[in-house]
Amino acid sequence: MEKSIQEIEHHYDEMNIVCERPATLLDARMHYCPGCGHGVAHRIIMEVVDELGIQEQTVGVAPVGCSVFAYHYMNIDMQEAAHGRATAVATGIKRCYPDKYVFTYQGDGDLAAIGTAETIHSVNRGENMLIVFINNAIYGMTGGQMAPTTLINQKTSTTPYGRQQEVMGNPLKITEMLAMLPGAFYVTRQAVNTPVNVRRAKKAILNGFNWQKLNKGTCFVEIVSNCPTNWGMKPVESNKWLEENLLPFFPLGDIKVPSKEDIEHA
């Protein structure tokens, strides 16, 4: 049974559930590397779906990349998309089934590289969906190549001496770019590297799902994450590197938020 935004807000203020596998997260061993943030992101998305009571009304779209196997873990309707085309596929699903809760789950190489056009135009049109963007500043599945979000001087398999601005350009702050578009309703950047940040990221996901009821535009949640394997670090080291390097360049927090008038009648 779906709950109102006010009921859910009260629940999250209380945070009654401390640790429990949501029913919508399948009891399957995840393939992600030890310490990877994808598993945490999966969990909080499914916690929100479970707690909102919208399992039967939710459709997720996962394209190529580390996110491609999300349908092995999320016990909801899922649709695979070609690399970079998740928001285009999600647009079609949402327009055919406007009462469904539709979200995409995409990495930086997907959303901010091959899928830049689809992403920008979907948000500019204000498609009524949630886009979850996992930013670990590298290509994870295909060998650790430089991504659009790779930092200056960061080493990858295609930038062994570090990314050079004069050759490869600057890292792309796709979230700030999308916040400027009129179709963007809610835009935020969060992380899952600490318990506090996990809680904030979960609240952002909650907003993204809940505010689809308003039909006022696209909700976009960036989650800054780590990639221990392709960064060549142990999990603890990768979280420290994330805090010291990624977060100063990709600061956490809300970038575009709806007004109280927009949501008070939800």
Task: Explain what this protein looks like in three dimensions.
A 7-stranded mixed sheet has the order 2-1-3-4-6-5-7, with helices on both faces. 38% of the residues lie in helices and 15% in strands. It has a single domain, classed as Thiamin diphosphate (ThDP)-binding fold, Pyr/PP domains (Rossmann fold), CATH 3.40.50. It is of the alpha/beta class and 266 residues long. The protein contains 11 helices and 7 strands. It has helices spanning 5-14, 38-52, 86-96, 108-114, 116-125, 165-168, 174-179, 195-210, 228-231, 235-249, 260-263; strands at residues 58-62, 77-80, 101-107, 130-135, 184-191, 218-224, 253-256.
Question: Which keywords apply here?
Answer:
single chain, 266 residues, alpha/beta, Rossmann fold, seven-stranded mixed beta sheet, 7 strands, 38% helix, 15% strand, globular
Topology readout:
Elements: H1 5-14, H2 38-52, E1 58-62, E2 77-80, H3 86-96, E3 101-107, H4 108-114, H5 116-125, E4 130-135, H6 165-168, H7 174-179, E5 184-191, H8 195-210, E6 218-224, H9 228-231, H10 235-249, E7 253-256, H11 260-263
Parallel strand pairs: 1-2, 1-3, 3-4, 4-6, 5-6
Antiparallel strand pairs: 5-7
Helix pairs in contact: 2-8, 4-5
Which strand order does the major sheet show?
Answer: 2-1-3-4-6-5-7
Please give the share of residues in helix: 25-40%
Order of helices and strands: HHEEHEHHEHHEHEHHEH
Q: Measured on Cα atoms, how large is the radius of gyration?
A: 17 Å
Could you say which structural class the secondary elements and strand pairing correspond to?
Answer: alpha/beta
